[in-house]
Amino acid sequence: MTPPDKTPALEIRGLEKTYQNGFQALKTVDLTIQTGEIFALLGPNGAGKTTLINAVCGIVRPSAGQIQVCGFDHVTHYRNTRDLIGLVPQEITTDAFETVWNTVRFSRGLFGKPRNDAYIETLLKRLSLWDKKDNQLRMLSGGMKRRVMIAKALSHEPQVLFLDEPTAGVDVTLRSSMWDQVRELRETGVTIILTTHYIEEAEEMADRIGVINHGELILTENKKSLMKKLGKKELVIDLAQPLTELPASLAGKPIQLLQDGQQLVYTYDTLQENNGVAELMDELKTQHIRFKDISTQQSSLEEIFVQLVGQA
């Protein structure tokens, strides 16, 4: 059975999960992810990220709501949806005494896929695991084991890949390499949904950002639009001569005197028609305050995330 054409990779409507102890892990989540997207789901510990992934992957049974994967309902077409999904969980769970090759090939067989050694070879080469194919997993580093988990998840050729904290415990160099590999996967047509605590990871890779907190999806937004809409911009002015204090005419404005009086930082909203920058420059000229350099900097995604969660 092949998935319908031109349908979202994932469509979630009214998804809820309440456990027997009364804890509501998910509260009416609605989410649509288009085919070929890299979607980053951000949230603090206990926000509901893993519960949401597990519900889509059939590990957790939702209390209410509907999930469709490439147009297939996760209940009535359970086998189809599972065939379409690959999952890389947070925990590394493998047979320590098995080889990389056998581990990945066995995972493919679990989904009833016919043997395809050429595909497994290509997959291992793509993930820089080919030279480790005969190594037992206990001989691999944590980062290499994480790559094996990705290879296992891709062994049955899924169209949607979930990465739950994919670079947890991975060093910076290997993390950057894995980001490149994720982008390459997207180029092959795989839709990727990742959760991460490394917000720079989402900023680097994602097309769209979702923020979940206390089981509620409080925002989904194109990454660039989100940073433009919620990000503050700062005008950084390096002074020719240090100031001991701000002039009275600048009191009450969103401006700070930093670096032992050698720098002024003015914060403004990029969406406001009159951002006050021209008036500030006129006032500096009136006060005979000279500067030697001027630059701007934008809020990071991390600052926006903290702001959103704090508001929620």
Tell me what you see in this structure:
Helices cover 32% and strands 28% of the residues. It is α/β, with parallel strands linked by helices. It folds into two domains: 10-227, P-loop containing nucleotide triphosphate hydrolases (Rossmann fold, 3-Layer(aba) Sandwich), CATH 3.40.50.300; 231-311, Alpha-Beta Plaits, CATH 3.30.70. It has a six-stranded mixed sheet with strand order 6-7-8-3-9-10, with helices on both faces. It is elongated, with a radius of gyration of 24 Å. The relative contact order is 0.13. The model has no long low-confidence stretch (mean pLDDT 85).
At a glance:
With 312 residues, this protein is α/β, with parallel strands linked by helices. The chain is 32% helix and 28% strand.
Please name the defining characteristics of this protein.
312 residues, alpha/beta, Rossmann fold, Alpha-Beta Plaits, six-stranded mixed sheet, four-stranded antiparallel sheet, 32% helix, elongated
Using DSSP, what is the number of strands?
14
Stated plainly, the CATH topology of the largest domain is called Rossmann fold
> Strand pairing plus helix content: what structural class?
alpha/beta
Largest sheet data: 6 strands, mixed
How helix-rich are the residues, as a percent range?
A: 25-40%
CATH class designation of the largest domain: Alpha Beta
Q: How much strand content do the residues show? A: 25-35%
Low-confidence stretches: none
Topology:
Elements: E1 10-18, E2 24-33, E3 38-42, H1 49-56, E4 64-69, E5 72-73, H2 78-84, E6 85-88, H3 100-110, H4 117-126, H5 142-154, E7 160-164, H6 172-187, E8 191-195, H7 199-205, E9 208-213, E10 216-222, H8 223-230, E11 232-239, E12 255-258, E13 263-269, H9 277-286, E14 291-298, H10 301-311
Parallel strand pairs: 3-8, 3-9, 6-7, 7-8
Antiparallel strand pairs: 1-2, 1-4, 4-5, 9-10, 11-13, 11-14, 12-13
